[in-house]
Amino acid sequence: MLLLITLTAFLVSCVVAAKPPQDPVDRTCQLIKDYHCDFFNPDPRCGTDGVTYSNMCQFSKAHCQVRELHVAHDGHCMTSGLGPGTLPGGQAVYDFFCKNLEHQQCGTDQEIVCGSDDVTYTNLCLFEKARCGNNSLTVASYLACPN
Ligand SMILES: *[C@@H]1O[C@H](CO)[C@@H](O)[C@H](O)[C@H]1NC(C)=O
Question: Is the CB of 54 inside a 6 Å radius of any atom of ligand 1?
Fold first, then answer.
């Protein structure tokens, strides 16, 4: 009996762990990882690591690997005058993600999300679109909202 309870608790914790991460940047990074950066127009950004990224897609992928990476300035890196980051990397990634999402159709996939605004979203894409317009929106649960 005890074994059964333990096993059930273990299985439940696995299911919870398999849900998409709550941290906004983590979730955004999960989606950005599938982007093909070659499809994005050149739009160089200089990173605080002194590397020129050919567009925000490339920068975003790099930031997702190294969270201390920020945007030093627009355009190519120059040999001098790096200075501190002018735009926090997480913010830059999120702005890029939202701008890109504007042009995307969310489709009709059923992947119910209840937002902290008490709105039931049919899928995570629709939820993300809403969150791009309201930073304070979070996932309340992966069920329909109670009315
Ligand atoms: C933003 O989301 C919060 C819930 O996280 C909600 O209370 C608030 O009303 C929303 N604001 C707008 C403008 O929709």
Answer: no
Alpha helix (H) residue ranges in the chain: 2-18, 24-32, 56-65, 89-102, 124-132
From the CA of 11, how far away is ligand 1's center (Å)? 34
- DSSP class of residue 38 equals G
Nearest CA to ligand 1 atom 9: 117
Largest Cα–Cα separation, the chain? 68
pLDDT tens, residue by residue, 69-104: 999 999 999 866 555 557 899 999 999 999 999 888
**C-alpha dihedral sign at 34, 40, 46, 51:** positive
Q: What percent of the chain is modeled with pLDDT above 90? A: 63
Mean pLDDT over 42-49 rounds to 94
d(CA 23, CA 42): 29
Phi, psi for 12 (deg, rounded to 5): -65, -45
For position 83, what pLDDT does the model report?
Answer: 57
Give how far the C-alpha of residue 57 lies from the chain's centroid of Cα atoms, to the nearest Å. Answer: 12
Do 70 and 47 contact (CB within 8 A), yes or no? yes
Beta bridge partners of 52: 46
Q: What is residue 11's predicted lDDT score, i.e. its pLDDT?
A: 44
